[in-house]
Design brief:
Elements: H1 2-36, H2 41-67, H3 69-96, H4 101-117, H5 151-159, E1 163-164, E2 167-168, H6 169-219, H7 226-248, H8 251-276, H9 287-297, H10 302-318, H11 330-334, H12 336-339, H13 343-359
Helix pairs in contact: 1-2, 1-3, 1-7, 2-6, 3-4, 3-8, 3-13, 6-7, 6-8, 6-10
Length: 360
């Protein structure tokens, strides 16, 4: 359903863009013809037709800019991708034969959270297209980490150079250092770009209907002077250019893309904090497995992830900034074994690695 709705709203963007541009250009042409025609019924007909077409274009633009069809389509594409990912995760867990009641509850909560984050209907539940400021997408329920009461015993293990469930002090420091890079570079950059695109989208959404509205008013005064004849034609042409840039360039889709990317890093931050802040290592995800999954999500190998952590630690001690981002997705494409792997088999293999570590 999300995939079908996404395709429908992508068609909305194309059809509405073409229709509004044709209406605006036709009205501009009529205003230009009226300026060079004589007085009488033909002039009145052209002026009235131009004004009506500009008014219709203004109303359609207001609706189109309010709902942002390109952004709606991107929301449904993200929902489709996330539901497919959740489906693959459930299928892998069933294939491995280790689903628990807790896992079933989490899966249900994830489905409901996704359905709430990316609603299908528009009226009443549509995501705000022009918020006051950029906010990362949030599509997963927040998990409360359980804290163990055996803090003194755990601290004693840590003082002895602990290693439990794949975790040790060095791995914790590495994960924290990577998180610092994500916060200072990736998340800040997406926030900056998200706010910039949001401002551009707001400006264009106001400029388009404003120009067609000016053209509609100006077309009623065509024939009463040279300037009154120029205004509707120029305003109509500018409105067509603005509309084409906003919806043809899919600025709303770009805004949603940045919001989704910000949500991706926010999700990783929450996952890291849930594991690192959990006092009982047995309640955490396996440390070595968690490190592998973090590296894959950032498009890095394990050695690249550890190099990044060392750079982050060094920059913190020296008071400098890291000169690279945490994400490095081109590294994944270069590794054909990962790029061409079946996702279900890859996740299945990682789960099997986790099971081996737990047995050891």
């Amino acid at each position: 359903m999300h995939q079908n709705i996404g395709e429908q709203r992508d068609n909305w963007n194309t059809l509405l863009l073409n229709s509004i541009n044709m209406i605006t250009l036709t009205a501009s042409a009529m205003a230009g013809i009226a300026a060079i025609s004589g007085s009488g019924a033909p002039l009145l007909a052209l002026k009235l037709s131009s004004a009506l077409l500009f008014s219709a274009s203004t109303g359609m633009l207001i609706i189109m800019n309010k709902i942002q069809p390109s952004q709606l389509a991107e929301e449904q594409r993200n929902a489709t991708r996330l539901f497919k990912s959740l489906k693959s995760n459930i299928e892998t867990t069933i294939a491995l034969g280790n689903p628990t009641k807790e896992y079933v509850k989490d899966a249900i909560a994830n489905v409901l959270a996704l359905d709430k984050a990316y609603p299908l209907p528009l009226l009443g539940v549509m995501i705000e297209k022009f918020p006051q400021k950029y906010e990362p997408a949030n599509w997963l329920p927040t998990k409360k980490s359980s804290r163990s009461n055996k803090i003194s015993q755990i601290n004693e293990i840590k003082q002895k150079g602990w290693k439990k469930n794949g975790w040790n002090e060095g791995l914790e420091s590495e994960i924290k250092d990577v998180l610092e890079v994500m916060k200072r570079k990736d998340m800040e950059d997406y926030e900056r770009l998200g706010n910039l695109v949001l401002k551009i989208n707001k400006t264009l959404a106001i400029a388009g209907p404003l120009l067609t509205g000016i053209a509609a008013v100006g077309s009623t005064f065509v024939g009463q002077g040279s300037w009154t004849s120029i205004v509707p034609v120029v305003a109509g042409a500018l409105a067509t250019a603005v509309n084409s840039f906003e919806h043809g360039g899919q600025v709303g889709m770009v805004s949603e893309m940045y919001r989704n990317c910000g949500g991706f890093f926010q999700m990783m931050e929450n996952s890291i904090q849930e594991n690192v802040l959990e006092e009982d290592e047995e309640q955490r995800e396996n440390g070595e497995l968690f490190e592998i999954k973090l590296a894959l999500k950032l498009g890095r190998s394990l050695s690249q992830l550890r190099d990044l952590a060392r750079k982050s630690a060094y920059s913190r001690e020296e008071g400098t900034t890291v000169d690279e981002f945490a994400s490095k997705f081109d590294a994944v494409r270069k590794r054909k074994g990962i790029a061409n792997a079946n996702p279900i088999k890859l996740v299945s293999g990682i789960h099997q690695i986790s099971g081996i570590h737990q047995k050891e």
